């Protein structure tokens, strides 16, 4: 969602979703399904995160997560995406829902602009996965992602990541510099060949 070399394919996908939203009002696919949004909002409410705390959605896509947070009373919301079509789509979804307190902007998270800072909550649903699939220097890009995260998230702030590519142990290793694990959020389990596993990992880190 926020990666440059993959941009043309993301761009095409979001252009399609933009057209279908204009035609029929459908905001398109919700990354990881609606239960992933519910899971994140539930965590924020359970931990009584004040509604005015600055929240950043990294790779916002169609912006639906932030619209749902706005409906729950959160007022300081920013969504970024590398894809200009995604940001256009999220702006239209926001307008349709009448949510004026969400800011959307085109940003490459691997090279964030200077004003992208001071967030207390950062949320990632699939963007780190997309960075990891980058055929050009995936390891370097993952390290840059962690550096970017450290620059936009305040010390003591929370990072909520949902991934379908990485296990809990792998994510702990990727984010070991600058972050500590707070908790693992329950995700749906599946059974394959007699072994039970999770197809999705959802973790909460705190910035040191």
Automatic annotation (TrEMBL):
Keywords: Cytoplasm, Methyltransferase, Nucleus, S-adenosyl-L-methionine, Transferase. GO terms for molecular function: protein-lysine N-methyltransferase activity. It catalyses: L-lysyl-[protein] + 3 S-adenosyl-L-methionine = N(6),N(6),N(6)-trimethyl-L-lysyl-[protein] + 3 S-adenosyl-L-homocysteine + 3 H(+). It comes from the Eukaryota. GO terms for cellular component: cytoplasm. Residues 54-183 form the Methyltransferase domain. InterPro entries: Efm4/METTL10, Methyltranfer_dom, SAM-dependent_MTases_sf. GO terms for biological process: methylation. Pfam families: Methyltransf_31. HAMAP family: Methyltr_EFM4. This is EFMT2 methyltransferase. It comes from Nothocercus nigrocapillus. The lineage of its organism: Eukaryota, Metazoa, Chordata, Craniata, Vertebrata.
């Amino acid at each position: 969602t926020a990666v440059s070399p993959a941009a043309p394919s993301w761009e095409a996908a979001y252009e399609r979703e933009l057209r279908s939203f204009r035609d029929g009002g459908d905001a398109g696919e919700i990354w990881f399904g609606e239960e992933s949004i519910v899971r994140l909002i539930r965590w924020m409410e359970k931990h009584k995160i004040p509604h005015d705390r600055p929240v950043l959605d990294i790779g916002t896509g169609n912006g639906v997560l932030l619209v749902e947070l706005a409906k729950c009373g959160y007022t300081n919301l920013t969504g970024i995406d590398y894809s200009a079509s995604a940001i256009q789509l999220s702006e239209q979804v926001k307008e349709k829902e009448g949510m004026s307190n969400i800011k959307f902007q085109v940003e490459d998270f691997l090279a964030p602009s200077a004003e992208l800072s001071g967030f207390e909550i950062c949320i990632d649903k699939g963007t780190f996965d997309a960075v990891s699939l980058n055929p050009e220097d995936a390891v370097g890009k993952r390290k840059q992602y962690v550096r970017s995260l450290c620059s936009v998230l305040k010390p003591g702030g929370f990072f909520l990541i949902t991934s379908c590519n990485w296990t809990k142990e792998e994510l702990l290793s990727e984010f070991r510099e600058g972050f500590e694990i707070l908790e693992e959020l329950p995700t749906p389990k599946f059974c394959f060949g007699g072994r039970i596993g999770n197809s999705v990992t959802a973790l909460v880190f705190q910035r040191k």
